[in-house]
Amino acid sequence: MRKVVLVTGASSGIGLALCKRLLAEDNELYLCLACRNTGKAEAVRATLLACYPTAEVTTVQVDVSNLQSVFEAAKELKQRFQRLDYVYLNAGIMPNPQLNIKAFFSGLFSRKAIHMFSTAEGLLTQQDRVTADGLQEVFATNIFGHFILIRELEPLLCHSYNPSQLIWTSSRNARKSNFSLEDIQHRKGQEPYSSSKYATDLLNVALNRHFNQQGLYSSVICPGTVLTNLTYGILPPFIWTLLMPVIWLLRFFANSFTLTPYNGTEALIWLFHQKPESLNPLIKYLSATTGFGSNYVTVEKMDVDEDTAERFYQNLLELEKHVRVNTTQKSDHQS
């Protein structure tokens, strides 16, 4: 029987590299590309099928920042599949990242340089926006839209006789200091990306607590420092030209500089081969690369506690009730 894999954000970056590597591991997968842009998704589908003609590759349109889009995608997936073996919750945004120039130059020549570049701690701030659903965009895209998608897909995921896996793309930038239970959407702060990734780690712990006995397991990974179009947009091109030799040199001192999307998917592929029952829900799995370019997986214990995770989960359930009422009212009004 073909394994069924759903990947959000599959048309570029980590998501695209993951799809290619998954089919290289098992060219008879049933792979579903969940993307916002249907044109890009269909182009990726055609490319994948040209390389792996024995695979089944389909697409579904979903914008995880838009709740109506999430509900519609989930309905379509439930009509199409009886179960999902793996769901890679990879789609995410870091809108308009701004570099803290003072922190950058003060950290560049300090003992914290490697840590600063590995995690972007203190370097980046973002200007968040509000979605049509009245949610903070980073929170909606990186965590809440995926949460609603999971809730909608529970009938396809919870089978105790044959476990399913949720695998989240988190970050080393997930900082407890940037998250607050009193402001889970990070309306008042300037680091919504870090807050959303810490929220991802919390949700991961809570999902395992609530769903392991039903055959659903959750894990989080960090792809490392990957250079993408988003990353290159943070600094002017001439600064990147100056920095690239330094960044390549840093790989010999810090294994987190994976640099390419292919390398960044190492932990995602590793989890594809693991028995979910054997994994520790309090561990984050990290893609790592040696100075000479060899990939491997390392781990770190997450800075989370189960009580905070449970309280956050309950907050999400309350928010879910509220948005479902609003979404229903919008649908009734439009009809």
UniProtKB/TrEMBL annotation:
Which organism was this protein described from? Spermophilus dauricus
Q: Where are the transmembrane segments?
A: none
Pathways involved? Steroid biosynthesis; estrogen biosynthesis; Steroid biosynthesis; zymosterol biosynthesis; zymosterol from lanosterol: step 5/6
Where does this protein reside within or beyond the cell? Endoplasmic reticulum membrane
**Family classification:** Belongs to the short-chain dehydrogenases/reductases (SDR) family. ERG27 subfamily.
Q: Which reaction does it catalyse?
A: 4alpha-methyl-5alpha-cholest-8-en-3-one + NADPH + H(+) = 4alpha-methyl-5alpha-cholest-8-en-3beta-ol + NADP(+); 17beta-estradiol + NADP(+) = estrone + NADPH + H(+); 3-dehydro-4alpha-methylzymosterol + NADPH + H(+) = 4alpha-methylzymosterol + NADP(+); 4alpha-methyl-5alpha-cholest-7-en-3beta-ol + NADP(+) = 4alpha-methyl-5alpha-cholest-7-en-3-one + NADPH + H(+)
Key word Endoplasmic reticulum present in the record?
yes
Q: What binding partners and quaternary form does the record give?
A: Binds to the short form of prolactin receptor.
Kindly state a single biological-process term from the GO annotations of this entry.
Answer: cholesterol biosynthetic process
Entry EC number(s) = 1.1.1.210, 1.1.1.270, 1.1.1.62
Entry GO terms, CC: endoplasmic reticulum membrane
Q: Which Pfam families match?
A: adh_short
Keyword annotations of the record: Endoplasmic reticulum, Glycoprotein, Lipid biosynthesis, Lipid metabolism, Membrane, NAD, NADP, Oxidoreductase, Steroid biosynthesis, Transmembrane, Transmembrane helix
Keyword Transmembrane attributed = yes
Q: What protein name does the entry list?
A: 3-keto-steroid reductase/17-beta-hydroxysteroid dehydrogenase 7
Q: How does it sit in the membrane?
A: Single-pass membrane protein
